[in-house]
């Protein structure tokens, strides 16, 4: 929606709070960043536009955390792994499972994932954030970055109270769209405008998941290709996550092309097209797929899931070669596991391949060029498109969140900019908090029985 004209507004915005660290976006990476900052002693505020924390995991019904494991080796510890354990203890998951990503696609890919009930994740995160002592503002949208002399000093937000200013020397942009960075004038990677498709997820109840799982994979693929030919399906996958109990299937089967999620008209079209596709997919599943005959549409995600928008230009740009050659970095602060999954823009396929080893993510990818005090985490890190496809999974995003939350709190405590904090100090604290960030550190776990 390109602006056709401008008007001038004069605003007197009340200052509603002063903090050490403000985190914008309460998704995978931002929630963990806020917990880490608060546990490291910072007065922390977490600002989220929706009514719950969790981001893609909850609002988009992306109901499985990927990338805790590379093969059978766990590569993410610290706060993310603690949250995974808390979700299980709360009855929201029956543990890590083997799962085939892109099931019924040309390149299916086996992974160890943590499937969960998104509703449980919501209250587990509420509890973890409040125990850490961070304040949360839900239903509050970021509006503008406050920048003075090349350094961030806070943000303005819009909530039911109208426009408010919130001040802090450190702001973490965990919005998934690098909204704070855009407002602060941070440059972005040039991506040529191509975007992976969006997906509106939905939940079916009254499904016999065991009966579905017993259908041989070549038969599933044949049925999917038939559905695609008839225009009733939209990509080569029967992509389901089942919650504990085996009666519900969360389906990631819509595929909405040519969407720039940073354009309000495109974003609206994505929701409507997603619902149109879901109506068709549900009919197909009930008619064609064993186990779904009596399925009931129980829920549609609050928002369409967006795989990519902006990636910042940071002090280092992670590349596919860094990942595939397992390059080591002095300033590594998190480990990624992949897979590299690229959903074909404009097509019905997916390209999936694995990094040969867990890969290191340098802190410099989370430090935006040109603005002091501003940090990023999650899918907007400074990376090429290919590298982002391998680093965007939620366990990796959460690990980045722990690193920048910790850094932000250390910087605020010493009244110095984050880029002046020695990385060894951040790594020392991360190690104390059981985070994993060096390839040599990772523990080999026994495969599940
Ligand atoms: C369809 C789909 C399927 C996927 N499948 C998987 C999978 O199976 N497993 C996996 O691990 N990963 C999966 N991913 C990738 C993963 O979900 C994301 O890459 C990951 O969530 C990125 O974390 P994040 O913290 O950057 O963003 P998010 O988790 O998206 O969080 C961003 C948060 O910022 C908030 N926000 C946005 N704008 C504002 C604003 N103006 N003011 C305040 N708050 C704001 C949002 O509401 C949201 O809560 C999938 C993604 C999609 C879209």
UniProtKB/TrEMBL annotation:
It holds the Pfam family FAD_oxidored. Coiled coil: none annotated. It comes from the Bacteria. InterPro entries: FAD/NAD-bd_sf (IPR036188), HdrA-like (IPR039650). Keywords: 4Fe-4S, Iron, Iron-sulfur, Metal-binding, Oxidoreductase. PANTHER family: COB--COM HETERODISULFIDE REDUCTASE IRON-SULFUR SUBUNIT A, FERREDOXIN:COB-COM HETERODISULFIDE REDUCTASE SUBUNIT A. This is FAD-dependent oxidoreductase. It comes from Pigmentiphaga daeguensis.
